[in-house]
Design brief:
By secondary structure, the protein is mainly alpha-helical. The protein is 67% helix and 10% strand. It has one domain (10-242): Rhodopsin 7-helix transmembrane proteins (Rhopdopsin 7-helix transmembrane proteins, Up-down Bundle).
Length: 243
């Protein structure tokens, strides 16, 4: 079924099997999470992060190197929360019946879909970078206090922050090389509320058309950075607690 068809009927629809229903159809749990739990968590996260930034602004004595890293972590988390929540609500509004559905227009698939994915990954990588920066800064402060005093200058701190953001932007780059094209098809699934026993809807989504290595790369970078940060932070915190 191509995107030029205007109407969906029995003859041009793909019928979902039962296992397809379990994979693609939205459940009550999906709706509750998307429309209630995610927005609540997003609002709560924004309030907490904004409150932290406000305290830093109002209390000069709290403007330490560690809190400067935490401030950037709060900014990255706030952007991630907003973008991630917007992503799922956008997906839900595109089609309230089917999962993984985005308005399949050329502009959405080429620009909005790709840019949203990029921002989500960039903020995720940035958050991990700033968590590692905080851990490293605390480790040096406790294990090598004299070196920490010389190392924690304003210029170096700003440089570390800049590098954390730059690295995050670089690690998320494979998403920009993926080509998405709009695709539309008619699908039918069992629905006891429908008069004929099943519902027929148009399913529009952004389909990946090129750059298979990009998806593999972003997955590898995600796993590698998380694993490296987890191990290195655990080792440094072990020595921090031990000292």
């Amino acid at each position: 079924m191509d995107g030029q068809q205007q109407y969906c009927n029995v003859s041009n629809s793909y019928f979902f099997e039962k296992h397809d229903n379990d994979i693609y159809l939205r459940t009550v749990t999906d709706v509750i999470i998307t429309l209630y739990i995610r927005p609540i968590l997003t609002i709560f996260g924004l309030i907490v992060n904004t409150a932290f930034l406000f305290v830093l602004y109002r209390v000069p004595s709290m403007r330490t190197v560690t809190n400067f890293y935490l401030a950037n972590l709060a900014i990255a988390d706030a952007i991630f929360l907003l973008t991630n929540s917007w992503w799922f609500i956008w997906e839900y509004m595109s089609n309230v019946d089917l999962r993984a559905t985005i308005y399949g227009s050329h502009i959405n698939c080429t620009y909005l879909y790709k840019s949203t994915l990029y921002i989500i990954y960039m903020d995720y990588f940035a958050s991990v970078n700033f968590i590692s920066a905080v851990t490293t800064e605390r480790y040096i402060a406790l294990s090598q206090p004299l070196r920490h005093r010389n190392w924690s200058t304003k210029i170096r701190t700003i440089s570390v922050v800049f590098l954390c953001w730059l690295l995050a932007c670089f690690l998320a780059c494979p998403v920009l090389f993926i080509t998405y094209k709009p695709k539309s098809m008619c699908v039918a699934y069992q629905d006891s509320k429908a008069e004929i026993g099943y519902a027929i809807v148009r399913w529009t989504f952004c389909e990946t058309r090129s750059c298979e290595w990009c998806g593999v790369s972003i997955g590898f970078l995600d796993l590698f950075q998380f694993s490296f940060a987890l191990v290195s932070n655990a080792v440094m915190y072990f020595f921090i607690v031990k000292s």
